[in-house]
Amino acid sequence: MALMMGYVSNLGIPRSGEVLRAGTARTYASIPFEKGFGTIITERIIDLIMLLLIVLVALFLQTQVLLLYFESNKINPLLPLLAALILVFLAFMILKIMRRSSNSVIKKITSLIKGMVEGIISITKMQKKVPFILHTLFIWAMYFIMFYIMKNTVVETTNVGVQGMLLAFIAGAFAVSTTNGGIGVYPIAVGLVLSLYGISKENGEALGWIIWGSQTLFNLVIGGLSFLFISLLNSKKNT
């Protein structure tokens, strides 16, 4: 219930759901906030790693399509790679400077980043590494299969292959992770990618709205019920 409440919260304020989830776990399950929040941050990092792995697979499978897109729009394909390398370099330099800073706020940020890194490393020390990895793969596989099956809701997108839907899935995932639940952006991102496969803007965005709308409705209903029942169940537990 804390998880679903967090999803609802993220629709209003991006990433606020993680804080709410940790706070709820502390209130109703007596889990220390720091430990709960650290676990959640680790989950998000693992999700990011999985998404980046999927991006690499998609780039490998759809290199031809992407190169044609870059060529038709007169975009140098090396520019995105160069931009990514520059961002990585800047991030490295910023972290290096932050580690030498004596500012209390910067020290706290550095400590948080260090904790996140330690969280990732801690995965190698857990007792059930294999089940954790398999379950992570299962979650993302089910997420994509759901996305792929939904293409049958729009007639024009039924013939889009796995590789095309994989690119659209990635676009939608980034839209959700960079905004408050992908509101307004998710359908545009999905429609833009599907246009590479001859799907009209209207039909591509229609599929995006159906996928985003069904997920959001589910989260609102289950998350709303969670807000209601978590306190009721806890009050019964105390009595």
Automatic annotation (TrEMBL):
The chain crosses the membrane at residues 45-66, 78-98, 132-151, 157-176, 183-200, 206-233. InterPro entries: L-PG_synthase/AglD (IPR022791). Coiled coil: none annotated. Its main location: membrane. It is a multi-pass membrane protein. Keywords: Cell membrane, Membrane, Transmembrane, Transmembrane helix. It is found in: Cell membrane. PANTHER family: UPF0104 MEMBRANE PROTEIN MJ1595. This is Uncharacterized protein.
